[in-house]
Specification:
With 381 residues, the protein is an alpha/beta fold. The chain is 41% helix and 12% strand. It contains 14 helices and 13 strands. A six-stranded mixed sheet has the order 8-9-13-10-11-12, with helices on both faces. Helix 5 links the parallel strand 6 and strand 7. Helix 1 packs across helix 2, helix 4 runs parallel beside helix 5 and helix 10 packs parallel to helix 11. The longest helix is centred in the middle third of the chain and has 20 residues. The protein is globular. The two termini are 18 Å apart. 42% of the residues are buried.
């Protein structure tokens, strides 16, 4: 949206989707690999010379900031890696605005076992004098944490979306209808729109506000409720649904979408699923699977730059599914994602196929398609 408003914008998100450098974009274009590696090496050399001993994610964050400085961006859109309070991205002391989306349980070993503990970590990005835009659909416990943290940190104003700004986001309603957005998509787009509007106001670019709506219309996010053609890998004529849902909150949203939009009452859904080690499968699966559904369990491949990430063994996924009473066709595809997709296509025939459970599986699928030369992945490259 900011790019549409003629603001030179750098974006840093994690994890990367296909290539390690695609987590950094300038004006919606993925940074050049050579420039990325050169900046990364400069950061690593500095780390070694000053004996900082930065973590992999700290080095990546510093590389993003280095590239933003080189490209002289006007605004940087920075996604927190994990939590907020102790995240590498939280070195930013004077943000124009901070945004906190709906909070669910995830990474409990690092962030806390209760929703309140996790909210406290997330609220750590609030800064004195900076507006903070939050999702008002979060639980009362979470909203109370936000109010307390905003007061303690001097974040002002604290803006609840959509309740505090229903008039301001009314302009988005035609887009909600045109694109048939789900409720959580509407809220997330509203958060981004309002934050972008605040940035333009602070930059004295009020005349650029109408362009935000054009940017909102063009907004897309690969790997989130993405309709995808996998014919190049499987010969399948029908599109599949690709979504990186990997925690209870995102799994619930995906499950509701599948039930509402693509599930056929007379035929089961076939799921291709991989899950990172440490996820609560017994919490996730009931939000996704119906008893009669088919499951093809796979393991995603090594994650570039993240050697600590590993997939749950497919047989474990299937054991948990069986214990929960899933009685459809259950298959172990090992670490062969292509074979898993082909198997799912044969099982499903013309019925729905959903690929989910991990952003790393999303990455594998999009990379495989990219490497066939037959698919655009919408990463701005």
């Amino acid at each position: 949206m900011l790019h549409a408003a003629n603001v030179k914008t750098g974006r840093f998100t994690s994890p990367h989707l296909i290539d390690r450098w695609d987590c950094i974009t300038i004006n919606e274009q993925v940074v050049d690999e050579f420039k990325f590696r050169k900046a990364e090496q400069a950061v690593k050399d500095r780390d070694l010379a000053e004996n900082v001993r930065a973590s992999e994610f700290e080095l990546l964050t510093a590389t993003a900031f280095e590239l933003f400085a080189q490209e002289k961006v006007d605004v940087g859109v920075i996604e927190v890696g994990l939590g907020g309070r102790h995240d590498a991205t939280n070195v930013i002391k004077r943000p124009l605005v901070t945004v906190i989306t709906k909070i669910g349980k995830d990474h409990e070993a690092l962030l806390g076992n209760t929703i309140k503990e996790i909210a406290i970590q997330k609220a750590g990005i609030m800064k004195r004098g900076a507006p903070c835009v939050v999702d008002a659909t979060s639980s009362p416990t979470v909203l109370k944490v936000f109010e307390t943290s905003a007061h303690d940190n001097g974040a002002d104003p604290l803006i609840h979306v959509p309740t505090d700004v229903s008039g301001e986001i009314a302009a988005l309603r035609p887009i909600f209808l045109e694109q048939n957005l789900e409720h959580h998509q509407q809220t997330n787009l509203s958060l981004a729109y309002l934050a972008s509007k605040i940035v333009l106001q602070q930059r004295a670019l009020i005349s650029h506000l109408p362009a935000l709506l054009q940017g909102a219309r063009r907004t897309s996010w690969p790997g989130r409720l993405q309709s995808l053609d996998i014919a190049a890998l499987t010969g399948r004529r029908e599109p599949v649904l690709l979504d990186g849902a990997h925690n209870a909150q995102s799994a619930e949203a995906l499950g509701l979408f599948v039930n509402k939009r693509i599930r056929n009452k007379s035929h089961p859904v076939t799921w291709v699923i991989a899950v990172s080690v440490g996820k609560n499968l017994r919490e996730l699966f009931p939000l996704l699977f119906h008893r009669e559904d088919n499951i093809v369990a796979v393991g995603f491949g090594p994650v570039d730059g993240m050697p600590w990430v590993s997939p749950t063994e497919p047989f474990t996924i299937l054991e948990v599914a069986r214990s929960l009473g899933i009685s459809g066709s259950l298959h172990n595809a090992g670490r062969d994602v292509v074979s898993g997709l082909q198997l799912a296509d044969r099982i499903a025939a013309a019925n729905p196929v959903v690929i989910c459970g991990s952003l790393y599986l999303v990455s594998d699928v999009l990379r495989l398609l990219r490497d066939t030369g037959n698919s655009k992945t919408m990463l701005g490259a």
